[in-house]
């Protein structure tokens, strides 16, 4: 039998490492969410308050209302900037689809290698179109 006193510190250090790893991820996720929500409220809250004030008293100039509307639109342009800054998974996914974001170290597979990989056969001798038809 293994005494509990010897096996317990190992288990607690593993659980501590597991907890630290997940708490860092949770902290980063909550920070990203806080930034996104904070920017949303800063951008759209003035618009909605002004919209209610306009409905009640009609005292908001049209130019000011337009500026607040465009401030809200600017929030939509900030989201594609914020996500890659704070989320590594988002960066990786976008790097796979956008050629401008692809790293030069990652070779793009050719269509031939993809078809060979998807077929169950090994490498074949070169065949012409006449031989196939």
From TrEMBL:
Residues 1-83 form the G-protein coupled receptors family 1 profile domain. GO terms for biological process: adenylate cyclase-activating adrenergic receptor signaling pathway; positive regulation of MAPK cascade. It is found in: Cell membrane. GO terms for cellular component: plasma membrane. Gene3D superfamilies: Rhodopsin 7-helix transmembrane proteins (1.20.1070.10). It is a multi-pass membrane protein. The keyword Transmembrane helix applies. InterPro entries: GPCR_Rhodpsn, GPCR_Rhodpsn_7TM. Pfam families: 7tm_1. The chain crosses the membrane at residues 26-47, 67-86. The keyword Transmembrane helix applies. Keywords: Cell membrane, Disulfide bond, G-protein coupled receptor, Membrane, Receptor, Transducer, Transmembrane, Transmembrane helix. It comes from the Eukaryota. Residues 113-133 are annotated as: Disordered. GO terms for molecular function: G protein-coupled serotonin receptor activity. This is 5HT6R protein.
């Amino acid at each position: 039998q293994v005494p509990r006193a010897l096996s317990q510190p190992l288990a607690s250090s593993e659980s501590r490492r597991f907890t630290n790893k997940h708490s860092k991820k949770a902290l980063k996720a909550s920070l990203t969410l806080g930034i996104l929500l904070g920017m949303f409220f800063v951008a759209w809250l003035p618009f909605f308050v002004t919209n209610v004030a306009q409905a009640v008293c009609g005292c908001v100039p049209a130019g000011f209302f337009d500026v607040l509307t465009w401030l809200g639109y600017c929030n939509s342009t900030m989201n594609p900037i914020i996500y890659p800054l704070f989320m590594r998974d988002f960066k990786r996914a976008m790097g796979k689809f956008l050629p401008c974001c692809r790293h030069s170290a990652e070779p793009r597979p050719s269509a031939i290698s993809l078809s060979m990989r998807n077929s169950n056969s090994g490498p074949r001798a070169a065949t012409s179109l006449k031989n196939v038809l």
